[in-house]
């Protein structure tokens, strides 16, 4: 074995590679479980995420630009999702009173009712595949750590919060 082989072996065995690999595998697995549950309610994951983010925002209204910043969607992607949700009368657009170029996506009563329909099973999936596998103290620590990491890699994710 050469010095080069030792060097690459050490780097490949680095626990940081394992950590990010496990995080990606876990996120992908959870996404698959949650997507299957949402499909039972005729919602795409992006549609549900937008509904949930709007519902959890004071006033249940969010600027379209903030929605794009908080999701993994581009501004055109968020426009397409909001178009579908608006077509289904789950959200409505309202003009921003301080910026003529801006618009808000606002949760409708139908959107809130749809969330009420979806959330019990959604929470069951989260509990079965994620939170139910972690002690409360570990979960609180994990949430703190995930926020630190998220704020570093996606500093705009709390836009409009």
Q: Which key features would you list for this structure?
A:
three-stranded antiparallel sheet, 8% strand, globular, Arc Repressor Mutant, subunit A, 161 residues, mainly alpha, 7 helices
In short, what is this structure?
This protein is mainly alpha-helical and 161 residues long.
Would you write up a description of this structure?
With 161 residues, this protein is mainly α. It has a single domain, classed as Winged helix-like DNA-binding domain superfamily/Winged helix DNA-binding domain (Arc Repressor Mutant, subunit A), CATH 1.10.10. It is 65% helix and 8% strand. The protein has 7 helices and 3 strands. It has helices at residues 3-12, 15-39, 45-55, 64-70, 75-87, 109-129, 136-153; strands spanning 61-63, 91-95, 103-107.
- The SSE order reads HHHEHHEEHH
Q: Give the CATH superfamily.
A: Winged helix-like DNA-binding domain superfamily/Winged helix DNA-binding domain
Q: Please state how the strands of the largest beta sheet are arranged side by side.
A: 1-3-2
Question: What is the C-level CATH assignment?
Answer: Mainly Alpha
* Coarse structural class: mainly alpha
Q: Which regions contain 5 or more consecutive residues with pLDDT less than 50? A: none
Helix content: 55-70%
Record field, number of beta strands: 3
- Major sheet attributes: 3 strands, antiparallel
**What is the terminal separation in angstroms?**
54 Å
> DSSP helix count?
7
Morphology call: globular
Question: What Rg, in angstroms, do the CA atoms define?
Answer: 19 Å
Average residue pLDDT? 92
CATH fold field value: Arc Repressor Mutant, subunit A
Name the beta content range.
Answer: 5-15%
Number of domains: 1
Quickly give the CATH architecture: Orthogonal Bundle
